[in-house]
Amino acid sequence: MTVSLVSTAGQTNRLTLLRVIKLAVLIGLLLFVPPLADSPFITTVFISALMFGIFGAIFDLMIGYAGLINFGYAGFIAVGAYGSALASFHYGISPWAGLFIGGAVAAALGFFTGVITLRLKGLYPALMTFFVGEAVRFSISNTPEYTRGVLGLSVDPFPSILGVDFGRDNLLAYYYLLIVLGTIILMAMWLLVRSKIGLAFQAIREDQLATESLGLNATRYKLLNFTVASFFTGIMGAYYAHYIGILSPTPEEFGLPRTVEILTITYVGGRGTLIGPILGAFAVNGAKSVFTAYFAEYWLFFLGAIFMLVPLLLPNGI
Question: pLDDT tens across 183-197, in order?
Fold first, then answer.
């Protein structure tokens, strides 16, 4: 018995050390590769991978910890992006304040959607979120007098702050801003999932009926999870809008293909890890760069194949 406990403890320590090493390597690469490479292409690749890795981590908060599937996730990104962009375009509100506006409107949509859907069982919540996401996208497309629809909405860059220029050509400023936002969001989620609330999330994921038998209101906790995740998604959507410079409600940007991409990133990185989707994003974006250079029209097919194979070959992700 003693030998077994020692062996288990040693294995746990090795896994913890391995995670620490992976995290240290990842942080080192994120902090030093773009400035040392001094290449706009490299910096753009890192911004894209890190941004979608953060989206994947937020998605993981829902699916990996509370078992919630949001098939309309890209629509929540669109709400955050357009919320901030329209506030700047029509009302002259600073994009810095737009980060919070994007988070607030996405959280409001998440709360409203959760109230409607999270009492449902089976696939119905996933289908309802898909309908909500598509309704958002079509609403944007069909109101060109306000959103400019498919004509494209021009979005102002972040204004200079603390002497840092956020002009379109200063990619490193956007990159380090992304690191700051991502660190805050990941730390907030890490603290949440390690609190009593996070334990409730995981209990609901494993067995909702047993959790409710202990006196916990599962719907309330799921609604909290969904709203918080929507808030963080809206912040990142606002960042995306002011970084990319122009928004258009195409399926590739804010439709099912985008949701599938983020869902795949989450599975590749590993559910229930938060940090795993960051690694998954670099893996998927690397594959996308190579694959689309030769077979761009088959990328979604290839992405679907990855999504089906990863749970079979790497159930815990990378």
Answer: 999 999 999 999 999
Average per-residue pLDDT for the chain: 89
Please give, one letter per residue, the 3-state secondary structure of the chain.
CHHHHHHHHHHHHHHHHHHHHHHHHHHHHHHHHHHHHCCHHHHHHHHHHHHHHHHHHHHHHHHCCCCCCCCCHHHHHHHHHHHHHHHHHHHCCCHHHHHHHHHHHHHHHHHHHHHHHCCCCCCHHHHHHHHHHHHHHHHHHCCHHHHCHHHCEECCCCCCECCECCCCCCHHHHHHHHHHHHHHHHHHHHHHHCCHHHHHHHHHHHCHHHHHHCCCCHHHHHHHHHHHHHHHHHHHHHHHHHHHCEECCCHHHHCHHHHHHHHHHHHHHCCCCCCHHHHHHHHHHHHHHHHHHHHHHHHHHHHHHHHHHHHHHCCCCC
Q: Whole-model pTM?
A: 0.90
